[in-house]
Design brief:
The complex is a heterodimer of chains A (about 375) and B (about 375). Chain A is of the alpha+beta class and about 375 residues long. Chain A is built from twelve helices and 13 strands. Chain B is built from 18 helices and two strands. Classes of the chains: A alpha+beta (about 375), B mainly alpha (about 375).
C-alpha cells in the first residue's frame, strides 16, 4: 500500500464508538502533533441560522499559527493538550482557552479526579473568525464494574463478535462514568443534557444544539487501549475532529502509530473492517437508516499518511439519530454487584459538598439517590 | 378382457406389483396403487427421519458433555431446532450447566418448548441464578410460555431484581401475559432508573394493557416522581392516552423544575390541541431554557390556533438558533410564511420523544 494511498473506511469504527461514537465516527478528523499532515482543507460549514454570540467570543485570527499556548494547564492534562495542540487547523487560541478552563477546577461541574483523563472532548462554535461556547468534557477511566452498554441480544453485538463488542463496551463504559465539564454554566448545562441523552441513544437533544453548527474535537492520548487486540499494540493516540450541523455530521478520525509500517498495517485492518461494516449496515437495510449508513460507509475513505491513519466520513444527521436508537443497549442504569452483593447496587452518596461515601442500596431505592445528586457506582477510591 | 398393469416400486422392495383389472378400470387401479405407495413412502420417510433424529439427538447429547462451553451452547441451540420432547428434556439439563452462557442459552431456547410443568419449574429454579443474563432469559421465556400462572414471578423480578437487564425482560414480559392486573407494575416501571426499562419495556407493557379509563389515574400518581425522566414520560403518556381532562396536569407540568419535563408538557398540550391552554404556554415561550422555549414554540404550532402567531413572532429574534428555527417552522404551520426556517430544518425531527415508542417495534 502506498504511503498516501486511499483505502476505504471501516465504518465499523463508527459503530464501535457507539452512540456518541457514531456521531464522532461520522465526523472525525485527526492529525497528529509534530506532523504537517496534508489533510484536504475542510470546506467552510454554512451557517443556516447564524446568531449573535451570546457569550464572550475569542478571536481566532491567528488560527494557523503554530505558537504554543502560553497558559500552563495542570500536568494531568499535558498529554491531551499536546495532542490537541498538534491537531491540524486547531487554533492555538482555542488551545489556550481550553488550558485556561482546565486551570480552574473550582468552576468544574464536579470534583476533578486527580488522575489524567482518558478522553478529552472539546466543543465550540466558530463564526466570523471568532470562537465561542467552548466547553471541555473530561472522561476518566472506569474504576471498576462491568457495564454492558451494547444491546447483548441485538444484531450489532452478534455481528461484531465478542472482541469488537467488548472493545465497544469498554469505550462506551468510559462514557458512562463521571464526566467533568468545564465552561460557561449555561452552555455546560445544555451539553450535559444533550450528551447524556446521546449516550442513552437519544441524539435529538444534541442535534438541537447543531442548528447553530457545533465543532467537536476529541483526543485520546492512549486511545489504542480501547481498540481490539489487532490494533491495540499498534495504535497509540486517537483524535476525532467533527463538524456537526443540522443536516450532516462529518469529519475525520485519526489513529497515530509508532511508525509508517504500523500505520500501513492498521490501515489494512481498518480497510478490511469496511466490508464488515457494510455487511453490518446491510443487516439494517430494511430499517430506515440501514441504506443510508451503508452508502455513507461506502463513500468514506481511509488514508495512510506517514505514521497516521486518517478515516473520513460524512453521514446525514437524521440517519445518525435513527441508527443510535436502533443500536443502543441497556445503558442508563447502575450495574449491580461489584463492590456490593449481587442483589444490591453501588451508589456514590453525596453527604455534603466535600464528602461522599459508597452505599449499597436496593434497586428500588436507586432512583431516589440519583435524583438527589448521587451517582452510579462506587465513589472514587473507596468501597462500601 | 383383463389388462395387466405392472408397477415397479423400490418402496415395496419386492417383485413388480401386477394387478389384473378390467380394461376399463386401469386408471382407478393406478390411483389406488399410488395412494398406497405414497402412504408407504411417507411412512418410510418418517421412519428414516426418526432414525436420523435419534442419531442427531445422540450426537447433540454427546456434544452437551463436551468440555468446550461453546460447543455445549451450540448443542443447546441445535436441540431447540429438533422440537422433540427428548430434545427439550436435554435442554432442561442445560439449565444446570456450569457455564452461564450455556444456561442462558438453554433458558432462552426453551421458549420453543411446550409449557409443561417440568419446564416451568426448571425455569423458575434458575430465576435465582447468580448470572443476570440467565435470569433475564428465564423470565423472558416464562412470560412467553407460562401465562398468568407465572405472573407473580414476572412481577417479582420486574420490581426487585438488581439487574436492569432482568427488569427490562421481566417488564416487557408483562406485555405477553397481558393481564390488566399488572398495569400498576408497568406504570411503576416508568420510575425505573434504567432508561431501557423505563422507556422501552414499560411503554410496551403499558401499551399492551392500557385503556384510557385505567391508565390515566395511575399515570397521575407518577407525575411527581422523583426522577425527572419519569415525570417527562408521564407528560408524554398523558397526551397519548388522555383527553381534555389531563390539561390541568399538563399545565402543572409547565412549572416543573426540570426543563425537559416542562418542554414535554408544552408539546403534549399541543398534541391535545388544548387551545384553552395557549395562555398557559406563554411563560414557557419565555423560559430561560432554550429547549423549553423551542418545545413551547413547537407546541403552539401543534395546537393550530392562529392566535399563536402573535406569541411566536418575538421568538424569531431569540438568542438561540434552535428556538428561532422552531418558531419559524411553527409560524409556517399556522399559515404565517413571513419567516423561513433554515433550509432542511424540520421541527418534527427534533421532538421525537420517547426514544422508543411502542409503534416503532422495529427498534426493539
Amino acid at each position: 500500500m502506498n504511503k498516501t494511498s486511499n483505502i476505504q473506511l471501516a465504518g465499523t469504527l463508527c459503530r464501535r464508538l457507539g452512540s456518541i461514537g457514531l456521531s464522532l465516527l461520522a465526523a472525525i478528523s485527526l492529525s497528529m502533533r509534530c506532523r504537517a499532515a496534508a489533510l484536504a482543507p475542510v470546506s467552510p460549514t454554512p451557517m443556516p441560522n447564524a446568531v449573535v454570540a451570546p457569550s464572550p467570543a475569542t478571536s481566532i485570527s491567528s488560527a494557523h499559527s503554530t505558537k504554543p499556548a502560553s497558559t500552563i494547564a495542570p500536568a494531568n492534562y499535558t498529554e491531551c493538550l499536546t495532542l490537541l495542540q498538534g491537531t491540524d487547523r486547531i487554533s492555538p487560541v482555542l488551545v489556550e482557552a481550553v488550558a485556561q478552563l482546565l486551570n480552574h477546577p473550582e468552576n468544574a461541574s464536579q470534583a476533578v479526579p486527580q488522575r489524567p483523563p482518558s478522553l478529552l472532548a472539546v466543543t465550540w462554535r466558530e463564526n466570523a473568525g471568532q470562537v465561542r461556547d467552548i466547553v471541555v468534557q473530561a472522561y476518566y477511566e472506569p474504576l471498576g464494574g462491568d457495564v454492558s452498554t451494547l444491546n447483548a441480544d441485538g444484531y450489532v453485538r452478534a455481528r461484531l463478535g465478542g472482541e469488537l463488542s467488548s472493545s465497544a463496551n469498554q469505550l462506551l463504559g468510559l462514557m458512562y462514568e463521571q464526566v467533568v465539564y468545564f465552561g460557561p454554566k449555561n452552555q455546560v448545562a445544555l451539553e450535559q443534557r444533550a450528551f447524556q441523552a446521546a449516550i442513552n441513544g437519544d441524539m435529538t437533544l444534541l442535534r438541537e444544539q447543531t442548528v447553530d453548527p457545533l465543532r467537536l474535537l476529541v483526543v485520546m492520548p492512549h486511545g489504542g487501549t480501547f481498540l481490539p487486540s489487532s490494533l491495540r499494540s499498534r495504535v497509540r493516540g486517537m483524535v476525532l475532529n467533527a463538524t456537526l450541523d443540522f443536516g450532516t455530521w462529518s469529519g475525520q478520525i485519526g489513529m497515530v502509530t509508532s511508525d509508517g509500517e504500523s500505520a500501513e498495517q492498521v490501515g489494512t485492518i481498518v480497510s478490511a473492517w469496511r466490508d464488515m461494516a457494510v455487511s453490518l449496515a446491510d443487516t439494517f437495510a430494511s430499517y430506515s437508516s440501514g441504506k443510508q449508513l451503508r452508502d455513507a460507509l461506502q463513500a468514506s475513505t481511509v488514508q495512510v499518511v506517514a505514521n497516521r491513519v486518517l478515516a473520513s466520513a460524512s453521514v446525514d444527521s437524521r440517519t445518525i439519530v435513527r441508527a443510535s436508537k436502533e443500536i443502543t443497549g441497556h445503558g442508563g442504569g447502575c450495574p449491580p454487584g461489584g463492590v456490593c452483593s449481587k442483589d444490591t447496587v453501588a451508589v456514590c452518596h453525596k453527604i455534603n459538598s466535600t464528602r461522599e461515601e459508597t452505599v449499597c442500596v436496593a434497586p428500588t431505592a436507586v432512583a431516589a439517590h440519583l435524583a438527589a445528586g448521587d451517582h452510579c457506582g462506587p465513589c472514587e477510591g473507596n468501597g462500601p | 378382457m383383463l389388462v395387466e398393469v405392472s408397477f415397479q416400486s423400490g418402496l415395496l422392495r419386492g417383485e413388480p406389483l401386477i394387478l389384473k383389472t378390467p380394461w376399463y378400470r386401469p386408471v382407478p387401479a393406478v390411483v389406488i396403487w399410488f395412494l398406497c405407495g405414497a402412504s408407504l413412502g411417507v411412512l418410510h420417510i418418517a421412519a428414516a427421519e426418526t432414525d436420523s433424529s435419534k442419531q442427531e439427538l445422540g450426537r447433540l447429547a454427546a456434544w452437551l458433555q463436551s468440555p468446550d462451553e461453546g460447543e455445549r451452547e451450540d448443542a443447546i441451540r441445535e436441540l431447540a431446532n429438533l422440537h422433540t420432547p427428548e430434545a427439550f428434556s436435554l435442554m432442561l439439563r442445560g439449565l444446570q450447566d456450569t457455564n452461564a452462557a450455556v444456561r442462558a442459552s438453554a433458558a432462552w431456547s426453551l421458549v420453543l418448548a411446550p409449557a409443561g410443568t417440568d419446564t416451568i419449574n426448571a425455569l423458575r429454579n434458575v430465576l435465582a441464578d447468580d448470572n443476570d443474563r440467565v435470569r433475564a432469559s428465564a423470565i423472558w421465556t416464562l412470560a412467553h410460555i407460562g401465562g398468568k400462572a407465572v405472573l407473580p414471578d414476572v412481577v417479582r423480578l420486574a420490581t426487585n431484581d438488581a439487574s436492569g437487564i432482568v427488569r427490562f425482560r421481566a417488564v416487557w414480559g408483562l406485555a405477553f401475559i397481558h393481564d390488566k392486573s399488572a398495569l400498576p407494575v408497568a406504570i411503576h416501571a416508568l420510575g425505573d432508573y434504567n432508561n431501557s426499562v423505563r422507556e422501552r419495556s414499560a411503554l410496551l407493557a403499558i401499551d399492551s394493557m392500557a385503556d384510557k379509563s385505567s391508565v390515566i389515574p395511575l399515570l397521575l400518581t407518577q407525575r411527581a416522581h422523583v426522577l425527572p425522566a419519569t415525570r417527562r414520560i408521564v407528560m408524554y403518556l398523558l397526551a397519548k392516552y388522555g383527553d381534555a381532562s389531563v390539561v390541568p396536569a399538563l399545565t402543572d407540568g409547565l412549572k416543573d423544575p426540570d426543563a425537559l419535563v416542562r418542554g414535554e408538557a408544552a408539546i403534549s398540550l399541543g398534541k391535545l390541541h388544548a387551545r384553552k391552554a395557549l395562555g398557559a404556554l406563554q411563560p414557557a415561550l419565555q423560559d430561560p431554557d432554550d429547549h423549553v422555549r423551542g418545545s413551547a414554540a413547537y407546541g403552539v404550532g401543534l395546537m393550530g390556533d392562529p392566535a399563536g402567531v402573535a406569541l411566536l413572532r418575538p421568538l424569531l429574534k431569540d438568542d438561540s438558533a434552535f428556538v428561532r428555527a422552531v418558531a419559524a417552522d411553527s409560524l409556517q404551520t399556522l399559515g404565517d410564511r413571513t419567516a423561513q426556517p433554515p433550509e432542511g430544518f424540520k421541527s418534527s425531527e427534533l421532538f421525537t420523544f420517547p426514544i422508543f415508542s411502542p409503534e416503532q417495534k422495529d427498534l426493539y
